[in-house]
Structure formats: structure tokens, C-alpha cells
Amino acid sequence: MDSKLTHLDEAGRAHMVDVSAKQSTVRRAVAEGRVAMRPATVALITSGTVAKGDALAVARVAGIQGAKRAADLIPLCHPIRLDKVSIDLAPEDEAVRITADVVAFDRTGVEMEAMAAVAAAGLALYDMIKGVDRSARLEGVQLLRKEGGRSGLWLRAETTESD
User: What percentage of the chain carries pLDDT values higher than 90?
Assistant: First the structure.
């Protein structure tokens, strides 16, 4: 793995990486995170009785929007035309697990778009439930899989102490 920080120039100043010479290929990234909450809050979500409305539907749309707006939120992120964004929200005993799968045919990867999707979905979900559970928290946003481009396939190992 290259240990050089690509968003720094020779003088150590931040800059946007020039990807003009890179080959366009199918790029895919999968990220996940979760919104931890009280079991009673999960029950409200799964029963569809959150006062503000369908919390999972709002979070799903927010996740898609988050992927589409990653370049607006992250200063050195390239704007990318996305071909697919799917958001899965899986209620668990004390959380809702969020998984984003993002695909594009482009010159640079979609890792930031996948993680922005998870973060936006998680924040929207928090917004939907904060009236009943202010202790809920977004946690563990991380890249699980990246494929395409020069570096090919990368998978998160089960133990990530060195990451």
C-alpha cells in the first residue's frame, strides 16, 4: 500500500488530486454504520409509529441524497456521476444497521460517497427519533469493500486494529 498522502502536494499543501490520466472503470464501494438506540425506539421504528413518520423511508432517501452530495460536503472529493446507490436499513435489538452500496463508472473511487450515504442516513434517522430517544448515537461508519481502479479489490478484515 502506498503510504503517500495523495491530497498533499510536494510542499505539503492540500490540493485536489488530478485524475485526468486515470482510466474510467466500474467503481464500487460498500460502507456501513449503525444508529444505536433503546430497544423501545427500535420497536417504534419497526411498528411504523414514529410521530414524524416513516423513519426508515426518510433515512433511505437521505442516504441516497448524501451519496449524491458527497463532493459538496468533502472539500477535495471529486464530483462523480453515480450509477447506483442502494441503502439498506436493518433493525436490530438495540440499533438500526445502515449499509450503503454505491457504483459509478468513473476515474476515481466512490468510497466517500458510500460513507457519506451512511452518515446522512444515520443523521436523518436520528432526527426522526430524537424526540423519543436523544441518547441515540451514530457510530461505526466504515468502509467494508472497495473495488475497481488501479488498486482493485479491498475488503475490510474482521480484525481492524491496524486500520
Answer: 78
